[in-house]
Design goal:
The chain has 241 residues and is α/β, with parallel strands linked by helices. The protein has helices at residues 2-10, 12-19, 46-53, 71-83, 94-109, 134-142, 154-157, 190-208, 217-240; strands at 22-24, 35-39, 58-63, 87-89, 113-116, 128-129, 146-152, 171-174, 212-213. A seven-stranded mixed sheet has the order 1-8-7-2-5-3-4, sandwiched between helices. The chain has a two-stranded parallel sheet with strand order 6-9. β3, α4 (71-83) and β4 (87-89) form a beta-alpha-beta unit. Pfam families: Acyltransferase. Keywords: Acyltransferase, Transferase. One of its GO terms (molecular function) is acyltransferase activity. This is Lysophospholipid acyltransferase family protein.
Length: 241
């Protein structure tokens, strides 16, 4: 109930008014039946803009931190995501990944739309990063199509660290459904999972026009943080000497 209140009354109309998103390829999203919508992830706003333009309800696998934040802000955020029907995902290890897959398969088993960001985290610099294979596991186990989606302009509207979005043109592109039925029963084959995931990421890339980085976003973020930390330590030592 709260999901539709947000979509049609509280948040959806405001998002459409402020961002006036240009939508392309909406006809590729099936009107009935289970499917995965796999998109790039550039901004916190992505969580709201895509559901606002879809005719059907979509359930996202959202990071658990959105549900466990401290203070009043944390409680409000958790209430919002719970009320909107989003599923918390613990990203701290292999077992956590398996739990996320089970949750996603549960959504698909009910014939619903599942939203997922294969990169596993928001892009910190606007580039598209290597996808994790969980999306492939779910697509093959559930036997459902994957609709690639590209968010364009949301990084500029609300880059990481910016709380209040700025007004900026936004485009949302949906691509043709990807059919992986040829790989049925092969969800335990690592090479197959990587091939399926890479095909999904290439489809997103073709829609978004982003620069592609063949490394996981989390790894690149960690490397950059380490370089900054090392650089700061060098400057501190120079000042001390």
């Amino acid at each position: 109930m709260f999901y539709y209140l947000l979509k049609y009354v509280l948040l959806g109309p405001l998002l459409r008014l402020v961002f006036r998103p240009r939508i392309e390829g909406l006809e590729h999203v099936p009107s009935t039946g289970a499917a995965i919508i796999a998109g790039n992830h550039l901004s916190f706003s992505d969580h709201f803009l895509m559901p606002a333009v879809l005719k059907r309800r979509i359930t996202f696998l959202a990071k658990a931190e959105y549900f466990t934040g401290p203070g009043l802000k944390g409680k409000l955020t958790a209430f919002f995501f719970h009320s909107a029907g989003q599923i918390p995902v613990d990203r701290s290890g292999k077992e956590a990944g398996q739990a996320a897959i089970r949750e996603g398969l549960g959504v698909l088993s009910k014939g619903e739309l599942l939203g997922i960001y294969p990169e596993g985290t928001r892009s910190h610099d606007g580039r598209l990063y290597k996808g994790k294979v969980g999306v492939a596991v779910m697509a093959l186990k559930a036997g459902v199509p994957v609709i690639p989606c590209a968010m364009i302009g949301t990084f500029e509207a609300q880059p990481p660290g910016k709380v209040v979005p700025r007004i900026h043109p936004v485009r949302i592109r949906f691509g043709e459904p990807l059919d992986f039925s040829r790989y049925a029963g092969m969800e335990n084959e690592k090479a197959v999972l990587r091939a399926v995931t890479d095909e999904i990421m290439y489809a997103i890339l073709a829609l978004s026009g982003q620069e592609y980085v063949d490394k996981y976003a989390a790894v690149v973020k960690a490397e950059e943080a380490e370089r900054k930390s090392a650089g700061g330590e060098k400057r501190r030592l120079r000042r001390a000497s």
